[in-house]
Amino acid sequence: MKKTIFITGTPCTGKTTVSEKLSQKLGCRLIKINDLAIENDFVLGIDDEKGYKVIDIDALDEKVGEIIKSSDELLIFEGHLSHLCHGSDKVIVLRVRPEVLRLRLEARDYSLSKIRENLEAEAMGVCTAEAYELYGEDVCEIDVSDLDVEESVELICDVVEDKVNPGIGEIDYMSWLI
Ligand SMILES: Nc1ncnc2c1ncn2[C@@H]1O[C@H](COP(=O)(O)OP(=O)(O)OP(=O)(O)O)[C@@H](O)[C@H]1O
Ligand SMILES: [Mg+2]
Known about the structure:
By secondary structure, the protein is of the alpha/beta class. It contains seven helices and seven strands, in the order E-H-E-H-E-E-H-E-E-H-H-H-E-H. It has helices spanning 15-26, 33-39, 57-69, 98-106, 112-124, 126-135, 149-160, and strands spanning 3-8, 29-32, 43-46, 53-55, 74-78, 90-95, 139-143. The chain has a five-stranded parallel sheet with strand order 2-5-1-6-7, sandwiched between helices. The longest helix is centred in the middle third of the chain and has 13 residues, at 57-69. It is globular, with a radius of gyration of 16 Å. The protein binds adenosine-5'-triphosphate (ATP) and magnesium ion (MG). Residues 15-16 line the site of magnesium ion (MG).
């Protein structure tokens, strides 16, 4: 079955962990967008202020398009830049309540400002809003705050197989900002 799924979300929402298990369960290829960008030299530089890698999104988009075009099977792409690329049949945004996400971000060696920035992005649903711009109704969000990895994988499987469609707009973490 030719189908492409993108899994996106704020850093530390569990994209890589969940996608690895999901691709094993479904027996399909997983493409990690961050690795793809590095392997293909799409890193333009490092942002002076924030320390992020700046990625050439147009080049990434083109590469993602080539991979999708050359595949006849189910493909999963994971990464927080995936939803900026074209060609997916469905974009799944993993959402984690800021209170829970904070603990995961703090366990990494991120600066306080980077933690704050990611938490604000999650509270405001930035990934969902960006994905919606490109994908409209083909975007859905899953709140995985209270799910373990296995439970998250089960739920995403049902979404991939069109058994459920959670849509967007149900998840609201805005009160965290106030
Ligand atoms: N469902 C879960 N329950 C509890 N902890 C989880 C869950 N999913 C992932 N984690 C933990 O959260 C941390 C971040 O997970 P992971 O690296 O998969 O996130 P990510 O979204 O891929 O982050 P990044 O955008 O930085 O690549 C890891 O320590 C992982 O073990
Ligand atoms: Mg990851």
